[in-house]
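2024-03-11 09:14:02 DEBUG pipeline.ingest accepted 1 chain
2024-03-11 09:14:02 DEBUG pipeline.ingest length=207
2024-03-11 09:14:03 DEBUG pipeline.predict start
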Amino acid sequence: MRFDPKTPVLALDEFQDYPSWHKGRWHYVVWYIEIVGDNVLSYCKQMQSQFAQILHDGYRRQFHITLFVNGFLADAPIYDDDCTLAQIAKQAQAIQRLKLPAFELGVKGVDGFSSSLFLAIDDWADNLSRIRQALGGIKSEIAPDNYCPHITLGFYRQGITSHQVLTMIQNIPCPPQRFWVNQITVGHYQADKLQGELTPIQRIDLF
């Protein structure tokens, strides 16, 4: 578990705004891997359905693995968590210079953050670290210190406790799941729609 089962989870309030975070900016940019393989997509949907009683029902974001958090799209940076289209273009060039071939990742099982449930990802060849290093060479990341590759299943609904989450996930079997990564995507979601869809800006094909 990624959270302390003795402490409360952070349930999502879909009607709450976070003006101190977005400061009137609306497009929050992330680099990510879109989950497109039928097998792993089916497994994500199965797990999401299995835990529906503890998950908020408003999650609309595509299944994905976040690679790197750029921050808010801006014409000219003002705040530390701003990014520009020029920086995104340079990051895309840095990814292309890696000349990465398509690679495999695996699903390790169900786990939880304090605010969300997820499927942990196994990156045995350390490809995600290489990509993150290339992206971070252009701009600093806006994210927690410890990167944990994962596929979010959803945010917790109101009234759920850490003990309930732990009880539900600790004995869930996880059959081996592997899938190929053929593209890296950069896109954004709207800051006032915390469970909203990702809109792609650019996709980069792997060799």
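2024-03-11 09:14:41 DEBUG pipeline.report The mean pLDDT is 89.
2024-03-11 09:14:41 DEBUG pipeline.predict end
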